[in-house]
Amino acid sequence: MSESTTYTGFWQESPRPGILGWLLSTDHKRIGIMYLACIVTMFIVGACLGLALRLELIAPGRTIMDAQTYNATFTVHGIIMIFLFIIPSVPAAFGNLVLPIQIGARDVSFPKINLLSWYCYVSGAILAVFAIFSGGGAPDTGWTFYVPFSTQTTTNVNLAGLAAFMLGFSSILTGINFVTTIHRLRAEGMTWGRLPLFVWTLYATAWIQVLATPMIGITLVLVILERTFGAGLFDAARGGDPILFQHLFWIYSHPAVYIMILPGMGVISEVIPTFARKPLFGYWAMALSSLAIAFAGSLVWAHHMYTSGMSDFAILVFSFLTFIVAIPSAIKIFNWVSTLYKGSIQLAPPMLYALSFIFNFAIGGLGGLALGAAAADIHLHDTTFVVGHFHYTMFGGLGFAFFAALHYWLPKFTGRMYQHKPAVIAWAIVFVGFNITYMAMQAVGIQGMPRRYYDYVPEFTTLNQVATFGSWILAAGLLMMFVNLWLGCRAGDPVGKNPWGAATLEWEVPSPPPLENFGEEDPVVTRGPYEFKGVVADEY
Amino acid sequence: MSIEHRDDTGARFGMWLFLYTEVILFSGLFILYAVALSKFPAQYSEASHKLNIYFGSINTVVLLTSSLTIALALSAIQMNRIRQCLNLCWVTVALAIVFLINKYFEWSAEISHGIYPGSPELAEMGAGVASFFNLYYFTAGLHGLHVLIGATLISIVAIMTAKGKVTSDRFTLLENSALYWHLVDLVWIFLFPLYYLIL
Amino acid sequence: MSEHKHEPVPYRTFIQIWVALLVLTGVTIAVSRIHLGALNIWVALGVASLKSSLVLFFFMHLKQEGRLFKIGLLVMLVILAIFIGMTFTDVLYR
To answer: Does B57 contact chain C (CB < 8 Å)?
Structure first.
């Protein structure tokens, strides 16, 4: 991207020339761009695997792969999408790009550790790829690594576990960096009440990253040790407890769901006021509901385990607590909708993604309540309804928020605007394809189709075919979106400081921002993040 | 490359956040321990008797003392007593090595009795005892790894102090390494009674 | 950035804390030799918590740090208690 001579800002300013200027850079924007490049690559790889899975399910019986390959494919699809795409997507890529500028800082608190976290991410990615092609073959446990299967299978679980450990470490380092940065490096006048909502959600996310991620670290280390020594840590016959593995696993992995979705909510909270030309409705409710989601998220992990054989009392407690999480999530949805009310809405591409985020997330969230209710979950557990549900929240939620962020902030960081018309068409295709795919998946799940099966009874054929058909539409839309964005970054029209007329700080610096973000003078903040009075959008 | 920016409090806070992650890391093992203890109280007491309480107690004293010396080292550098600070750092590292040597002898003795994760002798002793020793080895092993890392960190900082890179004005590195070392001590403070003193 | 520095803690304070820690170690060993049933483990944990707070507040200078550090530690401990406590809603009633 950096060859073109018209680019300015941080793309060219660097103490080191060439590729080393990137690989050894401690500039948060360069690290953010490197993250973004890796994450988008990983997303495309994961999406291709997902397409292969859907293609296998187009007809009962073996279609394009055998059962073992199917198991490995959904495992790798899960590991890539969860650990290499969703978790780092918004925080590591856009958090790094935007957060320091939004709070008026010149960089994060620990720039070198920031670079280290990128290297952890990359080595995790390399290990994950290695795990597929070496040892006893690609891991086939599902991304959840459940014991006892994960301690007995001959496939390469060790390396995949190590990869996830490294990625967790990368996530922790980012979290530490963000918490410290937000506490220590806010510009003069950037009070807590003037923090953009994106920063608030990243703050909540960063705390979860710090406090929950080590649990997955130790859990995966224990699985690896168990495979090495055969000590029986999770073997009931030898004094272990297989259900405890699930507890430890979900103690991290449920809060991780909020690591995934919270930053997405932050993006939406930026986009909606900007394109409704109205201050965000209920600033403090929004800010505090982020923290509330983060906290409540640590109370509900065992709702993934209703059918695991844990005690009925625990099922009761966790089912009840699960419903509490719906409250702050609903606060957010209502506040976004209230922000839209009587706003002068401009349906630019980021806004379309943001609005469809609300739609998808509401469906996903309500499906979550069905699964959170223990009685309904007994029927729905381990069906494709669950798969459809979490794709609604993760892909329809965070994925769409990520696309909104791409359309919203890429012009800022490349200094060029993509074509709007193809962007809108691509959005429509993605939205339609997405809903066809996953709605069909939810429907067939309610009928009883189990997840993670490569074969099914003929009754499920029609809906599976609809889902597969939808996945093609979705893929076509994604392809169009990425091509359009790529062309826009390469050769779009140059944009000024503030193409959208947004009021947060990043739109007051040039596009692309210079090294150190601000000139000689540190910025002084005198107004809130959504006060649009006097803020005018540049022509482009 | 950038404008000189220094934030010692921020650096310390970052270190504390990192220590939280370490606590949670160990807490995974402590959760397994707590659950197993509530399931096998009698077997845990029986297994605990097989551990050598002298090794455990001596190592406790060694670690507490090393925590003292590194804390003193920090005060020393703040008062610009570089020589003293260096000595205290090296004493800390020496105590860490003493700890590891003790651990080595303790583990060798136990392994020679056939007690190690996955051993056939352990399997014969029953589920509760096996679970105790599995967790003991993994927790103490992870802790030992942290002792090693901490000692390495302190050695590096000591060398940097000798070279004048850590000074009475700029000692965040020493401070953060000391914090890490105290965490190693903290984990042991819980590990010791839970594994050696169950009756 | 101007930086507020901690005053160096006098050696004497640290040595006093160290002595207290050694005494508490003695106490915990002594108590463990007395049969108190299930109470033993709680006494051991209590003494260990006391020892760790000495280490935290004095050796780790938490006493001199600002409110942020203390709140952070509290948050971590609350989350830790949730992780352990909520796991027991399953294990105790299974």
So the answer is: yes
> Using the beta-carbon criterion (under 8 Å), do B34 and C58 form an inter-chain contact?
no
Q: Give the residue, A42 or A19, on which the prediction is more confident.
A: A42
Give which of B8, B55, B59, B75 to mutate to test C binding, by max C Cβ within 10 Å.
B75
The count of structural domains within chain A is 1
CATH of the domain at A314: 1.20.210.10
Nearest-neighbour CA in chain A from C55: distance (Å)? 21
CA angle (A436 as vertex; A431, A438 as ends), nearest 5: 95
Q: How far is CA B92 from CA A424, B30, B185, in A?
A: 64, 27, 12
Quick check: B72 contacting C, CB < 8 Å?
yes
Among A172, A218, A237, the residue with its CB nearest the CB of B28 is A218
The confidence band for C23, taking pLDDT boundaries of 50, 70 and 90, is very high
What is the percentage of chain A residues whose pLDDT exceeds 90? 81
Q: Which chains have at least 3 CB atom pairs separated by less than 8 Å from chain A? A: B, C
> Which residue in B has a C-alpha nearest to residue C72's C-alpha?
B17
Question: Has the ipTM of the complex gone over 0.95?
Answer: no
Structural domains in chain B plus CATH codes: 8-196 (1.20.120.80)
Residue at A266 is within a domain: yes
**Is B22 near chain A, with CB under 8 Å?**
yes
State residue A409's pLDDT score. 96
What's the mean pLDDT in C35-60?
Answer: 91
Query: For residues A144 and B17, what is the distance between their CA atoms, to the nearest angstrom?
Result: 27
C57 pLDDT band, cuts 50/70/90, is: very high
Instruction: Name the closest residue on chain B to residue C29, using Cα atoms.
Output: B197
Structural domain span for residue A423: 9-508
Chains that touch C (3 or more CB pairs under 8 A): A, B
- Report whether the peptide linkage leading into residue A15 is cis, meaning its omega lies within 30 degrees of zero: no
Whether B129 has its CB under 8 Å from any CB of chain C: the answer is no
Closest CA to A262 of A217, A292, A299: A292
**pLDDT over 60 (residue A4):** no
